[in-house]
Amino acid sequence: MSAAGILFASFGVLMLMGAPITVALGAAAMAALYSLDQNLVTLVQIAFTSVNSYQLMALPVFVLAGALMEHAGLSRRLIALTESVVGPIPGGLAVSTALACVFFGAISGSGPATSEGTDAVHTASRPGGEPEAGTEDDNAAESAPGDSETEQEESEYANLAIAQVSHYVNVRQEPNTESEILGKIYNGAVAQIQAVAGEEQDWFQVISGNVEGYIKSEYFLYGDEAVEAVDEYVTRYAAVTVDRLNVRQEPSTDSRRIGYAGQGEKLKLLEQQGDWMLVQYTEDQTGYVAAEYVTVSEEFLYAKSIEEERAEQEAQRELARRMAEQEQAVPENTVAAPLTPPAAVYTSNEELRRAIVDYAMLYLGYPYVHGGRSLAGGTDCSGFTCYIYADFGYSISRTPSGQYSSAGRSIDYSEIQPGDIICYGKSKCTHVGMYIGDGQIIHAANSRKGVVIYDAGYDTILDVRNVID
Q1: Is 431 considered catalytic here?
Q2: CB 15 within 8 A of CB 28
Q3: Of 33, 147, 159, 426, which residue has the fewest beta carbons closer than 10 angstroms?
Q4: Radius of gyration over alpha carbons of the chain, in Å?
Q5: Three-state secondary structure call for residue 162
């Protein structure tokens, strides 16, 4: 039998016997070599000569080069350059790969090494090696809501940025320090990153409140660091629920009045002390208000436009003017102004739950606005559940992690009822939605989809919170 016959026969027998493929290949090769009428030393020399190739030995080195380029950011720039030239045309990924090989090959001088190194560069430039035509999240946008196999949800704060400045920094119309100032963003205020801009890619295009413009990225905490720290930047406010409420110097009705606040006005809450709350009355003056006449809400700080800055300064002047008014001239009035009566009197929690869900469904299709302050104008996932419940008289946290830790009580998913809040995440709550029954939720999904309905199990459920009973 020829050496080739012995090779294939030995390999087939060993495979049928269940030998590992590496053992089968090695043993079959040894059997075939032994059948040859040649000196084994000569065969070893031939094998060594075959692998003693510059091109072959260069491959690991250029894989290392690709890894170094990835770490230094050179690979992303190389791919970005080629894609900017040929990316928009059909088959842009293949053409950009070939064009990248031209640049890489000019450095390496090796065809096999160029192929291997460029593959490493291309893989490095897209985390996970996703195809240019669409990442998993992009393709999920084309699938029906609730397809858990293809849906990969954005984090609640995927594009969050938190201002880290000594006082404030200007928001500008263009990504340079010479352009028009549109507003100011103060320390601790949050923004949503829209894009990276500037010649050095060192500016963020952001939206914060009613202001959209450009700020240098060095003034922000962003990425995973911002997600971890976001709960520290929620501001609590005491909203006055009566016609006129005194702000006093000490937590006592016998204490001197320093001013007053009208119904609907919000004062920054510094500390809750039983029946009294310490609030920031003016920029340099604190005081106390009676806790029974205010409701507590949580909000983020946002950038202020030039017009908003002027309006706030006028409001501060009005508060300062009130400090000079005598209490006898403008007495406290703790009678609450009449509110619009509820549309119905709920005879059971089940009826209340259905009303909450029906109300939430009115906002189906409304936009997602990161940090948004109203249901009508658009808000994010935790804002959606927070404001829905607020309109029914419930006060819950403004953040996903806050709702996970303090909204109502924790229950098992088997006990879930319409109106309950589902918290999603693995070790940290990053998203929330409202259960509407039949295994579905309504939630503010992300900036592309807005308020939509999904299957409740589309992502990992961390907890279920019962706010109502």
Answers
A1: yes
A2: no
A3: 426
A4: 32
A5: strand
Q: Are 402 and 408 in contact (CB under 8 A)?
A: no
**198 and 310 in contact (C-beta within 8 Å)?**
no
Give the whole-number percent of the chain exceeding pLDDT 90: 39
Which residue intervals of the chain bear CATH 2.30.30.40?
164-222, 232-323
| 293 and 245 Cβ atoms separated by less than 8 Å | yes
- What is the CATH number that goes with domain 232-323? 2.30.30.40
**381 classed as catalytic:** yes
Give which of 186, 160, 196 is closest to 380, Cα–Cα: 160
Residue of 122, 386, 429, 431 marked catalytic: 431
Catalytic residue among 381, 386, 423, 429: 381
| Angle value at C-alpha 143, between 141 and 146, nearest 5 degrees | 100
Q: Could you tell me the CA-to-CA distances from 185 to 131, 147, 169, 189, 398 in Å, in that order? A: 38, 39, 6, 6, 20
For residue 87, what are its two tokens?
Answer: 């990316």
Q: Are 172 and 350 in contact (CB under 8 A)?
A: no
**SS3 for 168?**
strand
| Neighbouring residues of 431: CB distance < 8 A, sequence distance ≥ 6 | 153, 155, 156, 381, 400, 423, 424, 425, 443, 459
Q: Pick the catalytic residue from 101, 370, 429, 443.
A: 443
Q: What is the pLDDT of residue 126?
A: 38
Q: What is the mean pLDDT of residues 276-286?
A: 93
Q: Provide the pLDDT confidence category of residue 8 given band limits of 50, 70 and 90.
A: confident
What is the pLDDT confidence band of residue 169, given thresholds at 50, 70 and 90? very high
Give the whole-angstrom CA distance, residue 22 versus residue 382. 55
pLDDT digits (tens, 9 = 90+) for 225-245: 887 888 788 888 998 988 899
**Would you call 71 a catalytic residue per the annotation?**
no
**176-188 pLDDT per residue, tens:** 999 999 999 999 9
Does this model's pTM top 0.90? no
Q: Where in the chain is the domain with CATH 3.90.1720.10?
A: 349-466
Alpha carbon of residue 446 to chain centroid: 9
Residue 202 contacts residue 219 (beta carbons within 8 Å): no
Compute the average pLDDT of residues 98-123.
Answer: 55
Of the candidates 78, 84, 160, the residue with the CA atom closest to the CA atom of residue 124? 78
Q: Name the CATH topology of 164-222.
A: SH3 type barrels. (2.30.30)
Structural class in CATH, domain 349-466: alpha beta
Q: Which residue in 450, 448, 329 sits closest to 384, CA to CA?
A: 450
What are 371's two structure tokens? 């940090």
Q: What is the pLDDT of residues 40-88, one digit of tens each?
A: 676 677 667 766 766 666 667 777 776 676 666 566 666 667 666 665 6
Q: Give the C-alpha separation, 261 to 450, whole Å.
A: 36
- Closest-CA residue to 163 (of 330, 371, 342, 412): 371
